[in-house]
Write a sequence for this structure.
């Protein structure tokens, strides 16, 4: 499989969201009668869209608001929420920094040591207000932070790094044994990120409750430019879905996959589900909400790296409330609001009663899907021409 890119070297053709489209079904369904439920562990959520663990997207207030609307928001345990007693002032400084000083300032702000007492405090603040407490940590701190999080009543724990594998080699620090970790922790464990078939299988065999799929597609991520790594999300999701189905057939255990990053509109989200995803994780869409702590800005989790930043601060603006972005009414014309309405309408039009059925929708390669007939939108920079 693949095509020649030089003498003796082949490469596989991969696809992103802008290169495909979904074909309407032979039967259509009333959008209000479809089921969008996501199940992680033994709990169900009516919104299968998770807010990314980015400091410009999720804080305690946002996590509570997202929970009340039926979704999940991940709080970054490596970020300003656990480094500062008053993170709002730090976030304000980052949002008001000039383009020239943004990266340097972010690096400086993240040099402040993590205060472990704030991990439990933030989780308890979310739980006290009736929210779902979902938190994220890098593998090197996962064992320690998971214990603190579990003691505070955390609901979901994410172990997240740029690339996660079961077979990580290091002589400088102790590597995380995912098999032992997933067995020892009582919370559902989500592991990320990965993009290949074999790695997906190996991570699922650890006992993970779900996996994050995607390397480098995020709006604020620069991994693909800095490291040259990444697989376009359509191909990455399809490969991971094939691995999930293999694991289900072999072990009888269904492990949801969560497409993480690369989706800026409702259409992108619908395509991710059709490619096989059980849920999606997005950042920039929610960074635009009035409830987001970044004030119209957000930046990737690897942005503050002291020696090799793999993210940048981007301005997305503030376009509406979290409820408008999730459920409408949409006040924008480009598909960035009423994401749940878009998902339900898409499901109705392809004849999918559930997310599982949406995963079987017909997909076509359609490189002109965003440009065909859109001359006026492009010229006037409205709708799909923005």
């Amino acid at each position: 499989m693949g095509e020649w890119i030089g003498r003796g070297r082949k490469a596989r053709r991969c696809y992103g969201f802008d290169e495909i489209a979904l074909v309407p079904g032979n039967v259509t369904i009333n959008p209000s009668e479809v089921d969008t439920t996501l199940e992680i562990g033994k709990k169900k959520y009516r919104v299968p869209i998770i807010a990314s663990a980015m400091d410009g997207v999720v804080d305690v207030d946002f996590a509570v608001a997202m929970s009340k609307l039926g979704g999940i928001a991940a709080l970054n345990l490596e970020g300003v929420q656990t480094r500062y007693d008053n993170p709002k002032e730090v976030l304000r400084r980052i949002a008001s920094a000039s383009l020239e000083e943004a990266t340097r300032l972010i690096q400086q702000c993240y040099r402040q040591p993590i205060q472990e007492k704030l991990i439990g405090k933030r989780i308890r603040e979310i739980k006290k207000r009736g929210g779902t407490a979902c938190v994220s940590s890098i593998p090197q701190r996962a064992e320690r932070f998971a214990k603190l999080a579990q003691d505070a009543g955390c609901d979901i724990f994410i172990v997240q790094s740029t690339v996660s594998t079961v077979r990580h080699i290091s002589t400088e620090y102790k590597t995380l044994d995912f098999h032992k970790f997933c067995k020892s922790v009582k919370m559902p464990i989500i592991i990320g990120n990965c993009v290949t078939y074999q790695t997906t299988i190996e991570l699922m065999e650890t006992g993970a409750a779900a996996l994050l799929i995607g390397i480098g597609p995020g709006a604020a991520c620069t991994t693909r430019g800095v490291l040259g790594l990444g697989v376009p999300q359509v191909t990455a999701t399809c490969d991971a879905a094939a691995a999930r189905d293999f694991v289900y057939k072999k072990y009888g255990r269904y492990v949801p996959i969560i497409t993480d990053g690369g989706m800026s509109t409702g259409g992108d989200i619908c395509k991710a589900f059709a490619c096989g995803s059980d849920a999606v994780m997005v950042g920039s869409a929610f960074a635009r909400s009035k409830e987001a702590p970044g004030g119209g800005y957000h930046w990737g989790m690897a942005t503050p790296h002291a020696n090799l930043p793999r993210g940048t601060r981007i301005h997305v603006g503030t376009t509406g409330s979290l409820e408008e972005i999730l459920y409408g009414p949409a006040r924008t014309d480009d598909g960035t609001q009423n994401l749940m309405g878009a998902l339900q309408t898409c499901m109705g039009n392809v004849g999918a009663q559930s997310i599982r059925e949406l995963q079987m929708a017909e997909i076509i390669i359609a490189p002109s899907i965003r440009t065909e007939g859109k001359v006026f939108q492009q010229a006037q920079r409205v709708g799909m021409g923005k």
About this structure: Residues 15-385 form a domain with the TIM Barrel fold (CATH 3.20.20.70). Residues 233-251 form the longest helix (19 residues). The CA atoms of residues 89 and 382 lie 35 Å apart. The mean pLDDT is 94.
